[in-house]
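Researcher: First entry.
Model:
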Amino acid sequence: MTEQHLIIEDYGWEVFIFYQPDKDDIDGISSVLEMVGCPEENIRKAEENMLLVNTGFTYSNYTERASVMVIGRTTSLAELWSTVDHEKGHLVQHISEAFGLDEYGEAREYLAGDIACGMYPYIRVMLCPCSYKDRP
């Protein structure tokens, strides 16, 4: 698993991102979910989701301005790209709701771009076709 701690400075928002976890990573991710105030029921649902293929999840605590994003294991580069884009979309939605950003406005799109740029160094490495020789 790869971990990333992303700060979105313009919004004072902290994001804990976990890429491609396996079963040994569940307890650590659950601890971070608990730390950001995720309800126990949601943590249990997230634990069930963590080991599914071609999926992910994003939990946000608007009051704490903190999110946890998990990008699960995928079967192809296209599925990886799709999962990242999907979960990034949820994060943009959460921050936009917390700050009352216009869903059709430029601020929301700049936020999406900032998140994409922040995630890029991690995603770039995972998009190497050689990382899929032994998947899943």
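Researcher: Second entry.
Model:
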Amino acid sequence: MKITINGGHYPGHDSGAVGRTGLQEADINLDIMAKAANFLRAVSYDVLEVQVNALRHISDASKEFGSDLFISIHCNGSYDAEAQGTETFCYTLGGESEKLAACIQNQIICHLGTVDRGVKTGNFYVLRMSECPAVLVETAFITNESDEALLADEVKRDEFAAAIARGVTDYLSA
């Protein structure tokens, strides 16, 4: 089983969303990506970690790797400081991507207690261009004070990564 994990945005070039404390999405995504990859490798999956600035390069790397699953990890952001929680996107509903999204979403909600914003469709390039089941996980709102505190906590980032990895194993064992 080959799994590509993309840490959204690119430290030093594209910070992504930025929290009130200056916490940068790209840095959080890099950490969660690396931890989730290690959890999946520990149960014998072949994992490619990709965090580059060009979306085309992310999709191309996943295809060249021969990925069976694709997961993009992000932190959400909003001008509304009250917006919070976790949501997981797939390109269309009703297929394998939605099943994978539901497994990951369920694990994060159950183990981290974030607000459940659900599984949704999203017209994201990395989902649209994927040749395998693909999801984009918005772990929490970096622009919300309590969600940002979760993302800033290394132990909680480890829990996000573990929940993502468990969601993958749930999907694969279903």
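Model: Note on the second entry: The two ends are 15 Å apart (CA to CA).
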